[in-house]
Amino acid sequence: MRQQASNIALIAILILPLTSLAQYHYDSTAAAAKQKAPKKEHHIIGIGVKAGLNFANVTSASDINASSHTGFNAGIFFSPPGKLMGSYTELAFSQQGFDYSTGQNNSSLKLNYLSLEQLMAINITKYVQIQLGARTAYLLNAKTDSTTHTTGTDSAYNAYGGSLLSFFNRIDYGVVGGVEIHPVLGLVIGARYNLSLSSLYKNAFSSFGGTGSGSGSGSMSINPKNNVIQLYTGWRF
After folding, report:
1. Does 6 score more than 60 pLDDT?
2. Are both 105 and 159 inside the same structural domain?
3. What is the CA radius of gyration of the chain?
4. 159 and 98 share a domain?
5. Which of 49, 55, 109, 234 is a Cys-bridge partner for 229, taking CB atoms 3.0 to 4.6 Å apart?
6. Sign of CA dihedral 155, 156, 157, 160
7. Pairing of β 128-146 and β 171-181
8. Domain limits at 146?
9. Is residue 18 part of a domain?
């Protein structure tokens, strides 16, 4: 009986270290596998969609009391993941224009553009991105709305009948700067400023009497440029 108890105790003494060793090996293997497993990145492709508001106005148009016009922007973009610096390409629809008054008139000029932006992206941590670059846009259509009878600028517009686009340069180009925040997963929130370097009209526009040099009593020659502040949100896949 004592011999049997001694044998059992001896077997337990031999098995216990082996059990502990096996458990240690399992824990070590599991920990190593967990460490070696690559962390899944959400931003793999970098393709995204965005939409937001435009607060559009024009420069060099104080003579017609130009004020901001609200529209919207929507588009797609490609921003591949990078460490410090990368690229950002965007194709978007943009509603622009301005509201204006010329004495007896309160009117609104609405311009719709298809724009292509090529930007340099500077990543400040993974949450903030600074964007700088250039923008080229094509004017799709133009429309004026007047709240009173038409005189001045509106009569000049109407003289073209259905060819309002004949007034404008169809190609618009300029510089862009902005900041984008990536708070969680693929969510993006951004603000951007677009400043055009090209003139809005083909020729200087007179607020009292059509296009031309603006000569004559009471005429004011203007040839403004677009400038737009954009606020937007979107998702990057």
Report:
1. no
2. yes
3. 32
4. yes
5. 55
6. positive
7. antiparallel
8. 47-236
9. yes
